[in-house]
Amino acid sequence: MNITGNLNAIGYGLAAIGGGVGVGLVFAAYINGVARQPEAQRVLQPLAFLGLAFTEALAILGLVFAFVL
After folding, report:
1. Domain coverage including residue 19
2. In terms of one coarse class, where is the protein primarily found (predicted)?
3. Three-class secondary structure assignment of 46-65
4. I need a labelling partner for 66 at 20 to 30 A (CA). Which of 36, 38, 39, 47 fits?
């Protein structure tokens, strides 16, 4: 059996799923922390957005690698 094609789309799909799960976990932790200690919102909010940025950067790297390879 001869299989042709590439797996770039599957690789990016997995990277996008990972990014979605990561963003969900970051904001679930943020909501949980603010619900437990509302006064800590000013400290937790920048950390949540930083976690969002890093997680989305990994998904974008997956897109770049899908086109490069």
Report:
1. 8-68
2. membrane
3. HHHHHHHHHHHHHHHHHHHH
4. 47
Other C-beta atoms within 10 Å of 15: how many?
19
pLDDT, tens digit, 9 for 90 and up, residues 8-65: 777 788 778 888 898 999 999 999 999 999 999 999 999 999 999 998 898 888 888 8
Nearest to 50 by CA among 21, 66, 27: 27
Domain count for the chain, please give it. 1
Structure confidence at residue 5 (pLDDT)? 64
Residue 13 inside a domain? The answer is yes
Tally the C-alpha atoms within 13 A of residue 52's C-alpha that lie toward its C-beta. Answer: 11
Joined tokens for residue 66: 């899908």
Q: pTM here?
A: 0.75
What six digits make up the tokens of 41? 């919102």
